């Protein structure tokens, strides 16, 4: 069995490709994992949180974060890396290009034209730049289950579940 390639160049390429091809990662900070949609732009991951966007509590106060990237094919963990977190402010030079990329990647926005202004007022855009530090990588993944209890939420179903009529017979027919 051959050993997977290693080194800084391979790791950087793997992080870049996974971040480009997937739109969801898990951010681990303050002892909690948060699923987050993201984009990859200029060698960093960008996420929008707060307001009407995904809840990533107090991410603006974190300086370092663990990012868990999974395979788009089978959902298996591939790499966990440490990133430096910084906030992109509306007055920053990056604000325009980053918000344009986030708006184009964001599904189900009510108004594309006002999204950036809405984010400037109510949300936080965070830039997570990879460091050279890895927590897990191909060939050295932990055997832990990484199971977690779902977070409490006020979400409910919109009504009773639908009734199914003429359900197919799931029992096997008698052969004799």
Can you describe this structure?
The chain has 176 residues and is an alpha+beta fold. The chain has one domain: Roll (Pnp Oxidase, Chain A), CATH 2.30.110. Helix content is 19%, strand content 30%. It has three helices and seven strands. The protein has helices at residues 8-21, 95-105, 115-122, and strands at 24-29, 32-37, 39-41, 44-49, 64-70, 77-88, 124-136. It has a seven-stranded antiparallel β-sheet with strand order 2-1-5-6-7-4-3. The protein starts with 7 loop residues before the first helix and ends in a 40-residue tail after the last strand. The mean pLDDT is 86.
Furnish the topology, listing elements before pairings:
Layout: H1 8-21, E1 24-29, E2 32-37, E3 39-41, E4 44-49, E5 64-70, E6 77-88, H2 95-105, H3 115-122, E7 124-136
Antiparallel strand pairs: 1-2, 1-5, 3-4, 4-7, 5-6, 6-7
């Amino acid at each position: 069995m051959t050993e997977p390639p290693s080194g800084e160049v391979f790791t950087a390429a793997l992080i870049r490709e996974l971040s480009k091809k997937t739109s969801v990662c898990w951010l681990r900070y303050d002892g909690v994992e948060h699923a987050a949609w993201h984009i990859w732009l200029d060698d960093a991951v960008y996420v929008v949180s707060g307001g009407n966007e995904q809840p990533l509590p107090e991410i603006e106060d974190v300086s370092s974060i663990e990012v868990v990237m999974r395979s788009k094919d089978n959902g298996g963990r591939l790499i966990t890396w440490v990133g430096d977190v910084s906030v992109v402010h509306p007055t920053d030079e990056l604000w325009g290009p980053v918000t344009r990329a986030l708006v184009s990647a964001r599904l189900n926005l009510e108004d594309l034209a006002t999204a950036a202004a809405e984010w400037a007022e109510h949300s936080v855009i965070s830039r997570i730049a990879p460091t050279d530090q890895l927590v897990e990588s191909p060939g050295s993944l932990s055997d832990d289950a990484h199971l977690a209890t779902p977070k409490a939420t006020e979400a409910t179903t919109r009504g009773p579940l639908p009734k199914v009529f003429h359900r197919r017979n799931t029992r096997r027919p008698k052969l004799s």
